[in-house]
Amino acid sequence: MYSTETAKADMIREISGVNTRKCMKCGKCSASCPAYEEMDIRPHQFVSYVESGNVSALLESESLWKCLSCFACVERCPSDVKPAKLIEAAWLMVICQRGGNYLSPDEVPELLDEELPQQLLAAGFRKYSK
Amino acid sequence: MVYSYYPGCTLKNKAQDLDRYARMSAEALGFTLQEIEEWQCCGAVYPLASDEIATKLSAVRALNDAKEKGQDLVTLCSACHHVIKRVNDDMQHVEDIRTRANNYLKLDEPYLGETKVLHFLEVLRDRVGFDTLKEKVVKPLTGRKIGAYYGCMLLRPSSVMAFDDPENPTVMEDFIRALGAEPIVYPFRNECCGGYISLKDKPLAGSLVDKVMESAVCHGAEELITACPLCLYNLRNSGSREKVPVTYLTEILAEALGLIPEKGGEADV
Q1: What pLDDT is attached to residue B262?
Q2: Do B13 and A14 touch (CB under 8 A)?
Q3: What is the pLDDT of residues B180-217, one digit of tens each?
Q4: pTM for the predicted model, two decimal places
Q5: Does one domain contain both A41 and A74?
Q6: Which residues, given as ranges, of chain B have pLDDT below 70?
Q7: How many domains is chain B partitioned into structurally?
Q8: How far is the C-alpha of B47 from the C-alpha of B52, rounded, in Å?
Q9: Which chain B positions have a beta carbon within 8 Å of A116's beta carbon?
Q10: Residue B192 resides in a domain
Q11: Does A5 have pLDDT greater than 80?
Q12: Are B39 and B62 in contact (CB under 8 A)?
């Protein structure tokens, strides 16, 4: 638990290592994002939520579970802000709380099929579970 | 030439073709992939948080193993390659991670990022050479129209991966051309297939795969190749539009080298 929004914003900056002040709001990250249409908070808005101290809304956002870690936003950002790191820091703040995991081992049998590669399970647990 | 080789978890299981055809082809081309002992799963995704250490140690162990043998480290799976190359970059450039990882591992000699990490395709391009590869082809794949699917992890972030131009890559097209087939360039070859999202959000993975397939088919691709077991799984199993067959790049290599019968991209679909 973080007592204030400022403490949450500081934590997300620390985990991600992102300097949110470098963003110049050009929107290239959102334009590049393959999951843009699925997101309630869009990649170019992540920075603003941290800057304005509204991290709680970011932590409750569906966008956390739509990011593909494809690094298109990281590659194309002209200011090297790395929005993917910010969103990963946000979901880590969620799943590091007891009961916060987005993937449970109990779900796995239903998700399996004959061809499903081990890599997908390894990635799923690394991303969604602590 | 002997390279240290990191196969990764999936190449020992669902992606055995990717592994097997690579080893066979390597021998035919005059180099050996020597599997490192007691390798551990790389974790499949690179941990982005700045305080992640434990999740990077398996990559450091593999890198150090290759260093102790004095060999370059070759990978095939896009995810393994991505993780190991990025962790190596951390060990070279991020003092905090380098110090804490070495404090934990207490190796005989600290690991400082000395190992050169190469993707199998980089070995073909930079060490064997595509001209030499072309000379070794015994059954050119004449008439086949093959699209390269790069996906994300081989290319981005280009500042670390340094694999190819991240927006207009050519290495897989040059590879296809060396094997005697016609490379089909299509815009979505470096767009995401959905990656791990297919575990929990199949509709999103499906919509992304449909866009990739539509782009490939529209530009005339009759089959696709990839280096990534997860891309292959998503491309084959997600989405609802018309599909072309998807195989591993090592399969068409083994076909062109005459090591296995030519299946024309129809294998195992």
Answers
A1: 87
A2: no
A3: 999 999 999 999 999 999 999 999 999 999 999 999 99
A4: 0.96
A5: yes
A6: 264-269
A7: 2
A8: 6
A9: 14, 233
A10: yes
A11: yes
A12: yes
The residue of chain B nearest to residue A77, with distances taken between CA atoms, is B157
Q: What is the pLDDT of residue B269?
A: 42
Shared-domain flag, residues A11 and A72:
yes
Contact call for A117 and B197, based on CB within 8 A: no
pLDDT of residue A107 exceeding 60:
yes
Shortest alpha-carbon distance between residue B135 and chain A (Å): 34
Residue B175 is part of a domain; what is its CATH number? 3.40.50.1860
C-alpha–C-alpha distance, residues B201 and A64, integer Å: 13
In a domain, residue B266? The reply is no
For residues B211 and B239, give the distance between their C-alpha atoms in angstroms, rounded to a whole number. Answer: 9
- Asked if A88 and A128 sit in the same domain, the reply is no
**Do A24 and A73 belong to one domain?**
yes
Residues of A in contact with B197 (CB under 8 A): 35, 66, 68
The answer to whether residues A24 and A83 belong to one domain is yes
Provide the pLDDT for residue B265: 62
Task: Give the pLDDT confidence of B22-50 residue by residue, as tens digits.
Answer: 999 999 999 999 999 999 999 999 999 99
Give, to the nearest 10 degrees, the angle between helix A43-51 and helix A5-16. 130
How many structural domains comprise chain A?
2
Range of the domain at A63: 5-97
Domain with B89 in it: what CATH number? 1.20.1050.140
- What's the domain range around B161? 130-256
Above 50 in pLDDT, residue A104? yes
Q: Using the beta-carbon criterion (under 8 Å), do B48 and A85 form an inter-chain contact?
A: yes
Q: How far is B250 from chain A (nearest CA, A)?
A: 17
- Write out chain A residues lying below 8 Å of B48, CB-based: 16, 69, 84-85, 88-89
Secondary structure of B69-128 in the HEC alphabet?
HCCCEEECCHHHHHHHHHHHHHHHHCHHHHHHHHHHHCCCCCCCCCCCEEEHHHHHHHHH
The answer, yes or no, to whether residue A91 has pLDDT greater than 80, is yes
Residues of chain B found within 8 Å of residue A118, distances taken between Cβ atoms: 9-10, 13-14
Å from B237 to nearest chain A CA? 9
B145 and B115 in a common domain: no
Q: Are B105 and B111 in contact (CB under 8 A)?
A: yes
